[in-house]
Protein: Peptidase M3A/M3B
Amino acid sequence: MSSHYKTKKPLSPELIEKLIKTRHVNVGLFYLYQVFLAKFDIKIHTSQESADYTDMWNSLRETISLVKAGKPCPGQGTFGHITGGYDAGYYGYTYSLVFAADMYATVFKADPLDPARGQRYRDAILRAGGSREEIDSLKDFLGRPPNSEAFLKELFGTLPASHL
Structure:
């Protein structure tokens, strides 16, 4: 996106900067929704008590994602992951993004196409495969325990005040 779609006049640097900054709009609401889905998934797959899943869906949604449900509806019927064999693993989607951001920021960001960095990934992550705990492979690759700083920085542009 570099010019007006009709006039073809180039966009001003100020407008381009504003467009870039909009990538952070609603990211908080998106991840609150992801937390809600993950928590619902975990609750229905681990709870030993019977429950009204429609009530659980609506109350968790309102509590976690801050969206008023209005008339209670069986929204869980739209969440296909709960029957796809994930067994309380939906949280893994977001969790993997935390690790990916950390790996990129720590190793690849300086030179993503450096063959030595790719070889490091092959040696530390791919070679071991499932023969050892994934967290051990990740620590080997990063040279330290993983953290969420790169993920948060990617989401918000800077680290939130609570992380400074």
Remarks:
- The two ends are 34 Å apart (CA to CA).
